[in-house]
Structure formats: structure tokens, C-alpha cells
Amino acid sequence: MATTVELGQYPFDRYPKVDPTELDRRCQKIRDELGQKLLILGHHYQKEEVIVHADLRGDSYELAKRAASSTDCKTIVFCGVHFMAETAYILANSPEKLAERRGQRVQVILPDMAAGCSMADMANIDQVEEAWEELNELGLAEEITPVTYINSAANLKAFCGRNGGIVCTSSNARKILDWAFARRKRVLFFPDQHLGRNTALTMGISAEQMPIWDPFANEYGGTDLETLQNSQVLLWKGHCSVHQVFTREHIDTFRKTIPDIKILVHPECCREVNDAADLSGSTGFILKTINEAPAGSKWAIGTELNMVNRLKQEHPEQEIHFLSPVVCFCATMNRIDLPHLTWSLENLAANRPVNLIEVDDETATEARTALCRMMEVTEKGTTDL
Ligand code: 13P
Ligand code: SF4
């Protein structure tokens, strides 16, 4: 098991009963007391009551970068999901950062340990090792770069680190695939088939050259040898349950009723939605697009609802709609709420931190290799790692 956790017993009978204004005040008090020693990171999908306490809001890449550059802080409280907190721990405790802090580790806290990511859970290390072994027996593994979406467990990032692979996020997937194809003939992309497919399609790779690898199939990931030999990207059979609610019909309905509407989606949406949209990109890209749009712009946005609601609130001069008629939050992101945040901060202030996320040294070192490759390719276009 790559991750060890220090679990705290959340008092369900106390914190949720406290008035939110009082919880706000208590959170702020601890933030003031701890100052630079505490860094609260918040993903764009977090609820308003939580995100107001974040020192930095961002998409997965921006938050990972911020964790990697942490110097003064002793604790990161991650308001997001489990893989994000693991990534922050790995990057904040690189050998260079540890040397700068004279060996002092940054501790990372996830306010609710149930905040996982159902997509990340769709690939585990045994399945990926098994697939790799099968590909190796077929003589294909040496031609393949494994690419894991950052939405994955630390041991899958470590797998990529030790097999010449790399991590990507939704904001840099194209750059990462360009890098991968400059080195080897094929890519094994996990766990999100949609981000892999949508990105590879923009590179001119045909859908026929992207077979699905089903980890539950008996042989060849459910495909056949000829298809594998002709493939360019093997797409792991994983998806995001939140983004799969958006459909082509939702887009058609909006276009019919509001002809000058623009459709803006996250690349975790399926191909039909991604192709029919006007724009597709990470949560950071979605935010930037709306921030820069002129007054009177009309949008239907296909991503998590907390974020879309916030954009609506922040931009009353624009007409913003949620792409699906069905309410759709990310249930796991939503596990982090103001009571859990206050509880974790108060335990931290009392010197008995709860819900600590840690990654063992060997896994962290190999995962860091794949993460640092990603950062170098994203920032410089290449990497020697
Ligand atoms: P971003 O990298 O775009 O923030 O996406 C993270 C995520 O989990 C989207 O579902
Ligand atoms: Fe995971 Fe989907 Fe939630 Fe993103 S929105 S954290 S991919 S379950």
C-alpha cells in the first residue's frame, strides 16, 4: 500500500451542528495564527464554504505546481480529493525541498478521507502490472510509453516513473502525448479513456488506432493481437461518472433554444460531447475562458456543478448555464465541507493532526520521476529525466 494515513475520528455529533458563521470565524482564526506555516489548497470543484478559505484555487496542475514550490509552509491542507493530496505530499517533499528545509517534511491533510476519485479507482497497480506483462509477452511493451492521468494512485505514477512513462493533467495532455510519441511508437493511457481519446484525436490519430483496454477481459484487454499491433493509443476502460452525464442531446437542445450559445466542456466528457463543443479544456481553462469573455456572452458549461454555479455568481454580466438538466456534483469532492475543514484545522492547531496523507519513500521517489517529467515537459517542452 503506497499511502499511509493517520485517521481521525470525525465527531459527526458536533461540528455539523455548529453555525457556519462560527465555523468560518474559527477557521479564519487558525489561518491567522498559523500564517505562512499553513497552506490551504482548493480545487475549483470545492464548495463555496470551503473555497473561500483556500490560499490558492486551481486546477490539478496548478495545485501540484504550488505544492512543489512550497518553501515556508509546514502543513498543506488539501481541499480536493485523495490523489491530489498524495501528489502534493510527493512534490512538497522532494529531496531538494527537504534539503532547503533541513529535513523538515511538509505534512499533508485531507479533511475527509472519503474524498476519493471514482475514476482514479478504475485502475489499480495489479491490473496495470498485469496488462504490462501481457504487452511485454507480445513484444509490445518496449514500444509503449505508459501515461497516467494525474487522477490516479501514487503507485500508478510510480509505475510510470520506473517504466519510462509520465503523468499528465487535462491542461497538458497534448504536450505530454507529443513527448511520448517522440520517444516511442505507442501509448498506454490510463485511467480515463475520454481524456486519452479526445487528446489523441486532436493529433490526427484515428479512433480505430485507439482500442479500449478492458482490465477485466480475459485476454489482450478484450481486443485482439492485430488491433494491438496496429494501435497507437491503448485506452484504459475508465471514465468520470460526473462528466459522463453530459450528452450530445444536451448540446443540440441548447443550440436550438439559444442559437448564439457557446458550449464549453471538460475533456473528461465523451467524444461526441467533446467534438460537438466549441471549446474543451481543464477547469483552469474553463475559468480563464469565462473570466476573459465579454459581457453578454452565452455559455453552457459541461463540468462539475459547484464550479459552474460559482462562475454564474462571479459573472452576472454573462448568461451561464449548466450543460445538463440533471444536477451533478462530484460527490467525493463534496465530502470536504466547512465542518470537516474546521475540525482538521482545529486538530492541527492543537498539535494532534488528523487525516495525514503520506506516501512511502520508494513509491514517492518513482512517482516523483513521472511527475517531474510532466512538469519539465509542460514548462520547457522536454525533459532529461
Ligand atoms: P482539472 O485538472 O481540469 O482540474 O480536472 C480535475 C478533475 O478531476 C476533473 O474532473
Ligand atoms: Fe474524479 Fe470525476 Fe470527481 Fe474529477 S469529477 S474528482 S474525475 S470523480
Descriptors:
Rossmann fold; binds iron/sulfur cluster; 385 residues; binds 1,3-dihydroxyacetonephosphate; 16 helices; 6-stranded mixed β-sheet; 5-stranded parallel β-sheet; 3 domains; alpha/beta
- Total count of strands: 15
Across the major sheet, the strand order is: 1-15-5-4-2-3
Classify the fold: give the CATH topology of the largest domain. Rossmann fold
The structural class is alpha/beta
Mean residue pLDDT: 96
Shape: globular
Compute the number of helices: 16
DSSP strand (E) fraction?
15-25%
CATH class of the largest domain, anyone?
Alpha Beta
- Characterize the biggest β-sheet: 6 strands, mixed
Q: How far apart lie the N and C ends?
A: 26 Å
Uncertain ranges: none
Based on CA atoms alone, the radius of gyration comes out at 21 Å
From the 3D coordinates, which CATH architecture of the largest domain would you assign? 3-Layer(aba) Sandwich
Number of spatially distinct domains? 3
Bound chemical compounds: 1,3-dihydroxyacetonephosphate, iron/sulfur cluster
The share of residues in helices is: 40-55%
CATH superfamily of the largest domain: NadA-like
Structure report:
The chain has three domains: about 1-115 and about 335-355, Rossmann fold (3-Layer(aba) Sandwich), CATH 3.40.50.10800; about 120-240 and about 370-380, NadA-like (Rossmann fold, 3-Layer(aba) Sandwich), CATH 3.40.50; about 245-320, Rossmann fold (3-Layer(aba) Sandwich), CATH 3.40.50. The strands form three sheets. A six-stranded mixed sheet has the order 1-15-5-4-2-3, with helices on both faces. A five-stranded parallel sheet has the order 7-6-8-10-9, sandwiched between helices. A four-stranded parallel sheet has the order 12-11-13-14, with helices on both faces. The chain has helices at about 20-35, 50, 60-70, 80-90, 95-100, 125-135, 155-160, 175-185, 195-200, 225-230, 250-255, 270-275, 285-290, 305-315, 340-350, 360-380; strands at about 5, 40-45, 55-60, 75-80, 105-110, 145-150, 165-170, 185-190, 210-215, 235, 260-265, 280, 300, 320, 355-360. It has about 375 residues and is α/β, with parallel strands linked by helices. The model has no long low-confidence stretch (mean pLDDT about 95). It starts with a strand and ends in a 5-residue tail after the last helix. Helix content is about 40%, strand content about 15%. It binds 1,3-dihydroxyacetonephosphate (13P) and iron/sulfur cluster. 1,3-dihydroxyacetonephosphate binds near residues 60, 266 and 268.
